Amino acid sequence: DKTLVLNLAGNTVNLFENQYTPSYLNALSTTDATNGDSRLALKGGVGSMAVIELFGQADQYRWDDDNDPDNANDPNVPDFKVFTANSVPDELDDLRHNKWLINDASLTFYVDRTAMQTEEPAYRLYLYDLKNHKRLVDYDFDVTTVPGSPQYNKYIHGGLYEKSRYRYTIRLTNHLRNLLNPDIDSTNVKLGLVVTEFIGNTSNAKLRTPVLSTVDRIPAASVASRRGVILYGNNVNESDADEAKKKLRLRIYYTKPNEN
C-alpha cells in the first residue's frame, strides 16, 4: 500500500457583515483565491464558511492512448501526455491515469490555537457539494450511530473535533473513488465547509443576498450554530516547522494495480 499527500486550495468566504475578533477579521481579509489561504475562518449563525478545492488549478495536459479509444484499456499501448487543457486539473488527470485503488482518503483540519485564544472550537464540521448543495456520498454511506447522542452519528465520515489532537478529520474515500471511476459521471466540484449544530440536518437555508454565484444558500445546521473555529489552510508558512505540520492536505492511501 502507498500513501499520497496532495496540496489543495481552501478559501474563506464571508457570508454576512458583523463585528468580529481581530484574528477572525484577519483571516477574512487575507484570502487568496489562486493559491489558497493560510487560515480558514468558519463561524455559525451570521458568520462564514470555507470553499475547498481538492486539486490544484493547473490544467496543462491530458493523457492519451495513441489517440485511439479502442486502446484505452490496452496495457500494451503506452499512454502519453498531450499538452492541451481538458478542463480537468492535472493532479486529477494523473490519479485517473495511474488507476490506483483508493483505500482511504481524508482531509485533516488543524485548529489555530493561538488565534482561537480561550474560545472553544466548534464541535463538528460538515463538508458538502457546494455546486449542487447536497451532502457527499460518504455521508450517505456512513450508517454509524451513537444511541442517545445523535449529534455524534456518522463518526466514520467524521468532522468531529478531536480535542486531544486539536483537529478535525473528514473522510471522503467514496467521493474520491467516484472521481477516479470512468464508469461514473462524477464532476470535480468545489466543496463547502461549515460548522454544524447537528450532523443529521443537511437541509439548506437560502441567503437573502448571494455572496458568490456559487454561494446562494448554506446548510441550515450552520446557521443554528453559535460557535466557530479558525483552521490552518493550505497556504501556510512552511518555513515554520509547526505550521508546516498542520498544513491542510488531502491524504490518500492507495494500492497500485497489478500490472502483470
Could you give a quick summary of the protein structure above?
With 260 residues, the chain is of the alpha+beta class. Helix content is 17%, strand content 30%.
Shape: globular
How many helices in DSSP terms? 7
Order of helices and strands: EEHEEEEHEHEEHEEHEEEHEHE
Distance N to C terminus: 17 Å
- The chain-level structural class is alpha+beta
Radius of gyration: 19 Å
Largest sheet: 5 strands, antiparallel
Mean of the pLDDT scores? 84
Main β-sheet, spatial strand arrangement: 1-16-7-11-10
SS strand fraction: 25-35%
The beta-strand count equals 16
Low-confidence stretches: none
Number of domains: 1
Describe this structure in words.
The chain has 260 residues and is an alpha+beta fold. The chain has one domain (2-255). It contains seven helices and 16 strands. The protein has helices at residues 22-29, 90-98, 113-116, 137-141, 173-180, 220-223, 241-245; strands spanning 2-7, 9-14, 39-43, 48-53, 62-64, 80-82, 101-110, 125-129, 134-135, 158-162, 167-171, 191-195, 204-206, 217-219, 228-232, 249-255. The strands form five sheets. It has a five-stranded antiparallel β-sheet with strand order 1-16-7-11-10. Strands 2-4-12-8-9 form a five-stranded antiparallel β-sheet. A hairpin with a 4-residue loop joins strand 8 and strand 9. The chain is globular and about 55 Å long. The chain starts with a strand and ends in a 5-residue tail after the last strand.
List the helices and strands and how they pair.
Layout (H helix, E strand, L loop, with lengths): L1 E6 L1 E6 L7 H8 L9 E5 L4 E6 L8 E3 L15 E3 L7 H9 L2 E10 L2 H4 L8 E5 L4 E2 L1 H5 L16 E5 L4 E5 L1 H8 L10 E5 L8 E3 L10 E3 H4 L4 E5 L8 H5 L3 E7 L5
Antiparallel strand pairs: 1-16, 2-4, 3-15, 4-12, 5-6, 7-11, 7-16, 8-9, 8-12, 10-11, 13-14
